[in-house]
């Protein structure tokens, strides 16, 4: 079985974690000796991207010293790891490379701070450093332990447009590069080790796919390589019935459909980047979520069909910090162009809408990205009355069998009877129902729903 294996930030957080990665990959290859070597995609070491984002913010504020300080800290953290994992000339070479990369970044950061500006392109170059560094280290760690691995610069492989911080891959161009660069390595018997999250425009300007985008990178490369399985190695056993930071005792969902996984990821199940499923669906490649700390656990298998057992819901998800926008127009009833006009405003300001509900004279939508909210509101006010409510949240119940079993919806609403629901919506797929409620109520709503649908399973 040919596989691509993606390891997230906590799975490469320190030397010990990176050693686990080497062992997991080595075992995968040893178990399938007739196959091509696995392709490995890694995230930045945990929290590194957050710190790089902070560096950019400080530089934009003109706080060059503080920004440079973080870069120096990050270099020290990476060098601390290399000395445990790599030895001799390989260590010297790796440390020299990392030092020169981080020093170059420091020079850039100083300049940006003087200018009080970090352009979107600069921010992506800055954030790319996390994956560039971690992937170089992991590749060296493999070689140190006798695994024939080659570092591959993802910026030469993943071709994207120039939408910085949310770059869109050009699948055809990327497929060609994957064939020329990555497949050439595996054909030569080498394990390619690549950074997730990052790519470049055709002109070679560094881009990123958006936070959490390493999963997406792995799926893109996996689809281009036509692998048999895309493995997402993380710090939980798989997709759980709810976010473990919100619900006590969620349980593992062992099988999921692509459609269910997409809905869960889109509505907040951070374990999978929402776009990950797209390339997998296109090539019908199963996606498996696994725990790098407990590699023996089977994890969650995501396929076109999903699970056979259809007793209850599949899982819950929630998305916090959402804003509801109510748009009211007494003329709406007569105006057939109203919705087009309304959504054009969101399109113009590149803001996607998550939940939509309408009545005769009003439309309510939710957005989680409020960067352009002021522009959106002032444009909407040209033709409607508009009000907003922030600190809201979306709670979403997902399951293929919501279509066939109407009692599930009734049970969900009944279990939330003490919680004010602001909006309720079921899309045509009838695979999910979303409730919009106050952010302050999310924890209780999620736990009530979880008790209702999954309590019997806890400890099972
Ligand atoms: P990685 O760095 O490996 O990409 P992430 O932090 O992006 O890991 O995603 C894993 C985290 O997703 C888990 O630690 C968990 O807190 C969170 N999470 C949210 N919802 C779910 C869910 N339904 N199932 C599993 N994990 C979830
Ligand atoms: N390092 C990036 C982030 O933290 C991408 C990823 O981890 O998937 O968002
Ligand atoms: Mg992630």
Q: In terms of topology, how is this protein built?
A:
Elements lengths: L2 E5 L7 H17 L7 E4 L5 H13 L3 H22 L2 H28 L4 H25 L4 E4 L18 H17 L3 E5 L2 E3 L5 E3 L5 H12 L3 E6 L20 E3 H9 L10 H7 L3 E5 L8 E4 L11 E14 L9 H11 L4 E6 L3 E6 L5 H8 L4 E14 L8 H9 L5 E6 L5 E7 L3 H13 L6
Parallel strand pairs: 1-2, 1-7, 2-4, 3-4, 7-9, 8-10
Antiparallel strand pairs: 5-6, 9-10, 11-13, 11-14, 12-13, 14-16, 15-16
Helix pairs in contact: 2-3, 2-4, 2-5, 3-4, 3-5, 4-5, 6-7, 7-9, 8-9
The structure holds adenosine-5'-diphosphate, aspartic acid and magnesium ion.
Short description:
This protein has helices at residues 15-31, 48-60, 64-85, 88-115, 120-144, 171-187, 214-225, 258-266, 277-283, 338-348, 373-380, 407-415, 442-454; strands spanning 3-7, 39-42, 149-152, 191-195, 198-200, 206-208, 229-234, 255-257, 287-291, 300-303, 315-328, 353-358, 362-367, 385-398, 421-426, 432-438.
Bound small molecules, deduplicated: adenosine-5'-diphosphate, aspartic acid, magnesium ion
Percent of residues in helices: 40-55%
The tally of beta strands, per DSSP, is: 16
Q: What is the makeup of the main sheet?
A: 8 strands, mixed
Through-space gap between termini: 31 Å
The neighbouring-strand order within the major sheet is 3-4-2-1-7-9-10-8
Description:
- With 460 residues, the chain is α/β, with parallel strands linked by helices.
- The protein is 42% helix and 21% strand.
- It has 13 helices and 16 strands.
- A hairpin with a 5-residue loop joins strand 5 and strand 6.
- The protein is globular, with a radius of gyration of 23 Å.
- The two termini are 31 Å apart.
- The mean pLDDT is 95.
- The structure holds adenosine-5'-diphosphate, aspartic acid and magnesium ion (MG).
